[in-house]
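Before the break, one more example. Copy the sequence into your notebook; we will annotate it together after we see the structure.
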Amino acid sequence: MLKVASYNIHKAIGTDRRRNPGRIIDVLNELDADIITLQEADRRFGARAAAIPSLLLEQYSDYRAIPLDVQTDSMGWHGNAILAHKSARIVAHDILHIPCLEPRGAVMAQIAMNGFDLSIFGMHLDLSGLWRRRQAAAIVKLAKQYGQERPTILMGDLNEWSSSRGCLLDFGRNYNFVDCGRSFHSRGPIARLDRIMHCDQLTALAGGTHDSASARKASDHLPVWAQITAA
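Here is what the structure looks like once it is written out:
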């Protein structure tokens, strides 16, 4: 069994409007997942430095950021990053260019862990419904190319407010959604913006939203998680 999670960390700015990466570390440790995709993992302006300093992540968690070889000071690509437990073996990784109106991207890693050899995709989709659908179509196509025979998991902030329309239809034709519940806003969740999807080679045993006192303060999104096993 493998536990995966997705978390929009809002550049480590909490609901009190204070930047505190240590609180994000606390939530990551509470999650205790094997693989976590992050959104808004880098600062928006300037050098786009990582919202969580690498030394802090290394010393106070069991995770490492998968290197994307894009910017020296950044953790991710357009804010998208993938964390893996330090025991995981990273087979490959890549950044994905997708259609966009505003700066957007997706990331991919092939990870071997706990007897699994998986393709993991992380994303943060557009605010525009039209562009979200274009991005979903591009990511599905890329996932089929990169995934090939590997079981595939896609996670991220889809920015989709509808319950069954828009980009959810496009992803749903190819992948299964885990019922994780509402994740936004962290102080009073009303929307399922954060999603976890998997291919037919995998089964979700459980899924949910990590709603703790720390998570309600650390970001405006709550993390979502799923326990995955082979189908």
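The chain is about 20% helix and 30% strand. The chain has a mean pLDDT of 94. Try to locate both features in your own notes.
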